[in-house]
Design brief:
With about 475 residues, the protein is an alpha/beta fold. Helix content is about 30%, strand content about 20%. The structure holds NADP nicotinamide-adenine-dinucleotide phosphate. NADP nicotinamide-adenine-dinucleotide phosphate binds next to helix 4. NADP nicotinamide-adenine-dinucleotide phosphate (NAP) binds next to helix 4.
Length: about 475
């Protein structure tokens, strides 16, 4: 597979989701055409390929959840549905000539840095040798199955939300959903009317931010098509709102956090009429401590006559359904496990071996880390998009990836100019940043006492704990003293 040497750098991009497609487009724009994108599946799309559950959508407004270089005047809604988002990414890949660089059905299983180059091997036995690896392997990628007694004994249909089985009939069925994260909320609202009975098994009540999701009119879309500045206006105003949110979230005592809590509380009070149900839906922790759910219709859905909110903890799964600790058997035909993802895998299970045999699995044995989420000491020219401890909470990961890629390109330019051959963060820079990050994380809303996927094994938020504007500034230009640059 390695192409004939062009005298230029050769790249491997791992993953053909949003960040992998972005990398391919940007490499081509930079005239770096010697690269292959390795994609383990048979299609593009990452998250938007893997998640196909009913109600799938993105609660980041579509005009922000897209590439800045491929604005889309044709979004159907403020928050467009998942299949439309997937089609958008596929369209960009097709239009920008990315497809011919992609090897589908080829999972990179190992990556080793030998004599100054990365040697890749795929599960199909393909070997490649490249100068730079861009790992665009995604964050919410590996389904997490719940540790519930008797999980395998259930005789109905059961699947994880990210592995939706479309052959299973939902219409007229008794459906259970475990979990109350953003995924479960979207599913419940989308399917409740189709089911005979819908049981939502809630372990923790969620704060729900109200939203409306208007469709763009044909006139509005025509306007966007004619004048790109209109789209930029929408993007700017949404980005400002998100910046405001990010400023608030990093300071648990901020007025922004109080405002969010008030919005959510009013939503609960005004939307849920039965006082008993309202109390069971009332969270006992701070709003936005867990990933904030944004929903137009969850409260409406859970109040339907065929919906039941089950708050008695689950005792076990049985052939006929879910047994709760009060002794009741909730009989089900279908059970959806909307139980989230293993969020600390990042590039794993791929085996990555850096300089002097450094094993990324061992380096990350306690928990994953990277300088600015991008670079790991002694893993030269191996750069991650949406890597460990980055901005993930209620932001546009597209914008995050674009900023990170811009930063990586500045590192790459030094390699390309022949000024250096190997670039990775220094241990010292990574450790200093980590100490500051952990300290800052203590003041954030995520540290105010709740269980969430943001928290690492020590209970410390594994995310960017500073304002998003600071992330933008940090991504604008590398601090070269933080890098071990070898010639
Ligand atoms: P999640 O937020 O991790 O939620 C998992 C849910 O499963 C939680 O309610 C959890 O309960 C519950 N759970 C896990 N194990 C359980 C067990 N053994 N028994 C009972 N309940 C159990 O997962 P998610 O909803 O898939 O969302 C993950 C992330 O994906 C989101 O936070 C968001 O970042 C992203 N997402 C985004 C959108 C969007 O529109 N942008 C949509 C969907 C997802 P506890 O709360 O008690 O732990």
């Amino acid at each position: 597979m390695p192409s004939a040497s062009t005298g230029d750098l050769r790249f491997a991009v791992i993953g053909a989701g949003m960040a992998g497609i972005l990398s391919a487009v940007k490499l081509k724009e930079a005239g770096l055409n010697d690269f292959t994108v390795y994609e383990k599946a048979g299609r593009l799309g990452g998250t938007w390929r893997e998640n196909t559950y009913p109600g799938l959508s993105c609660d980041v407004p579509s005009h922000l959840y897209c590439y800045s270089f491929a604005l889309n005047p044709d979004w159907s809604h403020l928050y467009s549905p998942g299949d439309e988002i997937e089609a958008y990414f596929e369209g960009v890949a097709e239009d920008r000539g990315v497809l011919r660089h992609v090897r589908f059905g080829d999972e990179v299983v190992s990556c080793a840095f030998i004599d100054g180059r990365w040697h890749l091997t795929t599960d199909q036995g393909v070997h490649d040798e490249v100068d730079v690896v861009i790992a665009a392997t995604g964050v919410l990628h590996h389904p997490k199955y719940p540790d519930i007694k008797g999980l395998d004994s259930f005789e109905g249909a059961m699947f994880h939300s990210a592995r939706w089985d479309h052959d299973v009939a939902i219409d007229g069925a008794r459906v259970g959903v475990i979990g109350t994260g953003s995924t479960a909320m979207q599913i419940v609202a989308a399917i409740v009317d189709r089911t005979e009975k819908l049981s939502l098994f809630q372990r923790t009540a969620q704060w729900v931010m109200p939203a409306v999701n208007p469709a763009y009119t044909p006139e509005e879309r025509a306007g966007f098509r004619q004048d790109r500045r209109l789209i930029e206006g929408v993007r700017d105003s949404v980005a400002q709102l998100f910046d405001h949110f990010s400023d608030g979230i990093i300071n648990a005592g901020s007025p922004e956090m109080e405002m969010i809590e008030t919005f959510c509380l009013d939503n609960l009070e005004n939307s849920v009429t039965d006082p008993e149900l309202r109390e069971r839906l009332r969270p006992d922790y701070r709003a936005a401590c867990k990933r904030l759910v944004v929903s137009t219709n969850f409260y409406e859905a859970i109040q339907k006559p065929n919906a039941e909110l089950v708050t008695d903890p689950i005792e076990a799964l049985e052939p006929g359904g879910v047994r709760t600790v009060d002794g009741r058997l909730h009989e089900l035909d279908v059970l959806v496990l909307a139980t989230g993802f293993k969020v600390d895998a990042f590039v794993r299970p791929m085996a990555v071996t850096g300089r002097h045999g450094a094993d990324l699995g061992q380096v990350w044995a306690d928990r994953p880390g990277a300088y600015l989420s991008i670079s790991v000491p002694d893993f030269p020219n191996f750069f991650m998009l949406n890597g460990p401890n980055g901005p993930v909470g209620n932001f546009s990961l597209v914008e995050v990836a674009e900023l990170q890629f811009g930063y990586i390109m500045q590192l790459v330019e030094r390699l390309r100019a022949g000024e250096s051959r190997e670039i990775s963060a220094t241990q010292d820079a990574m450790e200093r940043l980590e100490v500051a990050r952990v300290e800052a994380a203590k003041n954030t809303i995520w540290s105010t006492g709740c269980r969430s996927w943001y928290l690492d094994d020590r209970g410390i938020p594994a995310v960017w704990p500073w304002p998003f504007s600071q992330f933008r500034r940090e991504m604008a230009a590398p601090k070269w003293e933080a890098f071990d640059v070898r010639t």
